[in-house]
Fold 6,7-dimethyl-8-ribityllumazine synthase.
Amino acid sequence: MATALQNLSTYDSSGFIDISEKRFGLVVAEWNRELTDTLSAGAYETLLKHGAKPENVFRNTVPGSFELTLGAQLLAQHEEVDAVICLGVVIKGDTKHDDYICHAVAQGLTTVGLKYNKPVIFGLVTTNTLEQAWDRAGGQHGNKGVEAAVAAIQMLGF
Ligand code: RBF
């Protein structure tokens, strides 16, 4: 499985740039709140661990993952925001809602990143079951919030 092979929750930070003056926007979906809170905590702690100042991390919530795109745009448009990290959990149900949401978010976040020339990180956990989601929110497949923060730091050094 790809996530088992590529798990950035264990990563090499030796090449990270100094992020002490960088400003980060965190956009967190409220659907599956317990899970997204865990992702958010992982991202926040990772940014601080690598030198970001707490006052330079702006956390905002949106109702659900579908709204991550607009939340990202509202933050990315500010000149002082260097990177935006978007976090959500979409669990497959009986209908195709997950497909529509995930495709819209992937497309939307790509567009925002390209429009503002900033890292806009896709921290959307998309799973078939709740158990698989917990596996990726601090469980056996790491914490995808940590990995999203790492991706943001890496892209700032690009
Ligand atoms: N938002 C999520 O972040 N995760 C979900 O698993 C999720 N499932 C949804 C299922 C249905 C049937 C609907 C209508 C919405 C769901 N949403 C979910 C909320 C969605 O991202 C968005 O907030 C709402 O559709 C309002 O635009």
